[in-house]
Amino acid sequence: MEEIIKLKEVIEAALLTSSKPLSIDELQKLYEEKIDRSTIRMIIDELVIDWKDKTLDLVEVASGYRFEAKVKFTEHLMRMNPDRAPKYSRAVLEVLAIIAYRQPVTRGDIESIRGVALNPNAIRQLSEREWIDIIGVKETPGRPSLYGTTKHFLNDFGLKDLSELPDIQKFEEQLNLDLSDTQVLVNSVVKKSEDQKNTDQESYEE
Description:
By secondary structure, the protein is mainly alpha-helical. Helices cover 54% and strands 11% of the residues. It has helices spanning 2-17, 24-28, 37-50, 74-78, 90-102, 107-114, 120-128, 151-156, 168-177, 180-205; strands at residues 56-61, 64-69, 132-137, 145-149. The chain has a two-stranded antiparallel sheet with strand order 1-2. Helix 1 (2-17) packs across helix 3, helix 5 crosses helix 7 and helix 5 packs antiparallel against helix 9 (168-177). The relative contact order is 0.12.
């Protein structure tokens, strides 16, 4: 029991201080002796319960596990840096939704779904955020690029895989009615991503 408590404290400290999600393989490297993956998963399950009524949640995303502030604190935390999260237009959010739900898609596919020409800036903004990338080419005349979301997108939105995306009909209804909630979510995700990048840079400079 005492040994498990020590293992748990090490994993908890690593997750709390890491600027990126940590996988089971990475958590195993914390110890000189070999720790079974099942033991680490058991410890993570215990930590999830331990933090259930605290300010942070331990969540699993595409790249591993990380602590993040509970959603109810998002609005307050964003006030610390209100100008840092760029605002995305309705068009950019629509393009992101189309790529996320319909991938792989070409520029032509996106234009066909939206019914208007695609502004290159939309693809550029999403690519710079590392939420989308070219994942192949379509075997048609001209071999247009195929776009899909990235692991970075999954991490930022707190998803383990694409199956965890909200129901597409509900998401499309939200886009048609009101983008305010979506913008708040995107802003909080961008801020979290920027904070992690700044932490990485500070660590490098030190």
